[in-house]
TrEMBL record:
Listed transmembrane segments: none
Keyword Lipid biosynthesis: no
Location of the Protein kinase domain: 557-825
Highest taxon of the lineage: Eukaryota
Official protein name in the record: Protein kinase domain-containing protein
Amino acid sequence: MMIHSFIVARLLPRLAWTPYGQRAATSLLTKPFLALHLKDETGILRAPNLFVVTHEKPNWPGSEYFVLDGKTDDSLRSLTVVPPLPFKVPLYLSVTPHICATFPDVEDSSHLLNDKTYQLDDISASRFLAALKDAGPSIYAPRVTGSDEEAGPDWDTWSGYTPREVPGIIEFGHQVVLFFESLPFDSLTSSFEVSLFDEILLIRQLVLDYSYEGIWRVISYIDDLRRQMASIAASGRIFRSPSLSSGQDGCSYPSFDPLHPSAVALQSLPVIHDGDPPGEVEPEDELADDLRDEEMPVLEMHMAAKTPAVLAEDIRIIALDSNVLIDRDGPLKEVLTSLFPPSRFQHSAEELLDRYVEYETLRASDGQLESPLAVVRDVARYLSIDVEDAIINGALQHHSRPRLLTDAVEVVKAIIEQGHVPIAIPSTAARAAVAPIEGLSLELFDIAARNPPLSWDAILSFCKDSHQISRPTQILVVSSDLYRICESASQAGFPTAFLKVKGSRSGHLSIPTIAPTYTLTQVADLLQILHDPQCAPPPPEPVVDRANPPFRVRDAYQCTRLLGTGSFAYVWNAVQVHTAASVAVKFELIHPTDPPTIPYESAVYAQLYGVQGIPRVHWSGQDMNANVLVMDKLGPNLEQMRLFCRGRLGLKTILMLGEQMLATIEQVHAKGIIVRDIKPENFALGFVEDYRRLFLFDLGLAKLYLDRTGAHIPFREGRAGIGTPRYASHNVHFGLEPSRRDDVEAIGILLLFLLHGRLPWQGICAPDILSKLRRIGEMKRGKPFADLLSQSPAFFTPFFEHCRALEFADKPDYAYLRRLLHDEMDQNGWEYDWQYDWWQAGERGTLLPEEYKLDKRWVEPVRRVLDTL
Ligand SMILES: Nc1ncnc2c1ncn2[C@@H]1O[C@H](COP(=O)(O)OP(=O)(O)OP(=O)(O)O)[C@@H](O)[C@H]1O
């Protein structure tokens, strides 16, 4: 029996077991089992040929089993194994008719396991045994040397297969957990009962289909997107329709201006990892990455405190946030849409307003007073649109006159009628609009000029002096701004009423850090509460996860969960609390000795501002002892997408992605920057509106290749490799300074990887890292690469010929490279329709719960068996 590969796994319970997983877990819990993939004579791996080997005698209904080298039980067919396995206890190799059903012409499973055809060879047998003997589960990985040599015993054991690369297995410390589908498989359980063994088969398929942690991310991304699409479409926002390159739509590329402030800023910073001495190059060892991650200090950040709800029993004063009385958003939208008409800039009024609110909050948290001109300037910068101040001022004067909301006067009147004193929380924007409301106290406008503008102490002392109250609980603060007004008022001990106005964005968020005393859906409800404060029960106290407390950056970005960790940084999922926009916040603790990387990366992003396919930075700077970068949130990366699509992407998807990569890299190069770390993990899909676009991120290794005069950096040799060896160009392996040609070659290698799911130099062994890197370089220059090209679509050959013919300072012919990909699309009769593999259910594509279709090979036999019962 020739073992192709095997997996030893220990099934452990997870928190989110499905009923499906639970059943398997209770049966197999803590019993390691070993699954063999068998090769048949043709050498083709038949995926369904999975056999489970255990120490335990199988007693699953309908299962057949063989005893491996067992002499104990004559009634069982013993499988002769050559050479005999030197273990004492019998091992049972289980087979069920269901497996055989995948070979329609074979009735009996024993045909699959006749002793003539299947034997364990020496190496397999010893590995098999070693793996079973090993108390902790282990994973077999073939050793390939990358040359003709035999791998030596002390060679670097880095195989290129990491636990994460073996489907379904994720390592936690010394144990291995098999991740199962954690989505509810209602359809599966309702349609037929499955035996435990069937479950194992199904689990195997699930493992193949989903497995990794990253796959959860893809599933939730697609799920999220589908849910959000409807609400976005309804909100009037626009799904940005991507275009391939500015070259195609007639605009010119942004070009390198060495005197541009962002270029000057980047030039002034030392380049990170530039020609590090040999030996410091990081291998592509994910395990090592994991270990490094574990050593990272914990990010300790201040969290927004949870506030106690305050019962308003003796409220005397109603403090109204002016946004409850005036329509500020309407006029602002008019200003913004007149400056940036959606027909020209593809931004909806909603989106423009979100940007305005975001920049206003950032400015306020910087202690800068509201200045609509400055805020609109920020919005224009974000959109990469040049607008003169005079034009902005003109638009502001023309449109931005705040108007009273229709029921504002009635609300104030009713408050007065009920014997309360209404005051308006100061806001310069409200000054003119609320002035005409009779009976509304306006004295508080004076404190608007203070910095910070809103001071709850000042409001309290004002009310104490002029209205003889003694406690904050006598003042009810009413606002439609949950986070800026209600939250801070609650924290200061004031009872609050949050008015969830229709369409309010932040009102959709429920971040458990605040406790407004009341939540109202219309102003009229406020009158009811004022009449009888007990009529509306206060909401339950928010539950905050103390082990993983949420925290807020710049009063604006609420971090909710960790998205990922890199070598230097933590990346958190965050929402802009006033606009509900999704962002990613990257943190790096400020360390007394380690050089910071985020300021450098921010400078790179600043230089690439406005480049299509590069995420936009919302804010960067320092907060809470960390360097912080707030940027567009992205979806899953290409590696996750590849795994989601079962290890490989189809040619059409690859061509579409390739064209985008080339379009982006062309623009990045045009801004004077080379990326130097092209890899699937650094390309991610856009989030929500940009879900079809591919983005390049993690630019910590990027560098300016043009100097202050616009001249190309000099050619150098003997440089330490930089980037990721799997995708680096052949030159980088031999110490040549990278330039534009190396970025485009790396894109080619990445496309080959996505197409084949594996590259020949993965998993090779060598005595040490440096010789391994050299060997990979030789493989990239030699026959293995030529063989790879011969098994790949023909356009790859001229693609690499072009990249490799370029001199160091040459500009690649991006249009030519794109045309190669485009012609391949044409030859296959494909349209560039942005329909990637992962959107299509089927052979490769998404298998979301409702779409989950079991492979016929699994379902049919089970159905047939059930039919005969
Ligand atoms: N804008 C983003 N949106 C969503 N997730 C992100 C974003 N940026 C980073 N991430 C997640 O955080 C992880 C780490 O980020 P990143 O790669 O930028 O950090 P790094 O320390 O520079 O990592 P590396 O070691 O790869 O250089 C990424 O793998 C990705 O999962």
